[in-house]
What does this fold into?
Amino acid sequence: MSRRPELHDGYLGAQEEMAKVGMAPLTHKREEFEISDNEVEIKFNLSDPVKVTTNLINCKTDKDVSEHVFVQMEKSAISFQIGFPESGYYKFQIFALRQSNSSKSLPNVYNYLIHCKQALNPVYPCPKQYVEYKNGCYLYEPKFLNSSVRLRGVNFKICVPNANHVALVANGEWTQLENKGRDMWELKTNLDQYRNKNVKVTLNANFVDDETKYATLLEYTI
It folds into this structure.
């Protein structure tokens, strides 16, 4: 049985800078809660677009496992999809700033303590998110891509506002996604040949007139 960690007064919940950022909890309004499995989605309302980063810390080992947090922006909300690799207590820390603020330093705005009672589902690292992805993109699938999951007939579906082209790059091979309208891009492809080869797979978008210039959105490792 894991023991609840000791936390200093004022650590949990909204921090001093919270009101300035314009965020408010939408789904989990209690700053300490437990879950019966090892996946949860936490949403916050937003009054303005924000820059955000997070820490997910395993209290037993003090290890940062933030690669299991995937951040998605919606119209007036932000979603944190979290997988917990093992049971126990976790500190989930949110750092944020309005996008209009040019400061590079993001203050801590909210802290949760989450007790994961049992870890029955396999959890995998989320794809690495680059700056361009955070400008209104939304990934529908795949949320995970690695050598432990199916790599034949992989469906890619992503919303990329204002993109001219979107391409998948796997081991130097480029494949264009098809524009389905309303900023939606899709592709079905096989990646089984890269299994266990530690290959990086990226989603990239072209936003400018120069068709050779692509910005990286997401990066997976197979």
Summary: Residues 18-21 form the longest helix (4 residues). Helices lie at 18-21. The longest strand covers residues 88-98. The chain has a mean pLDDT of 95.
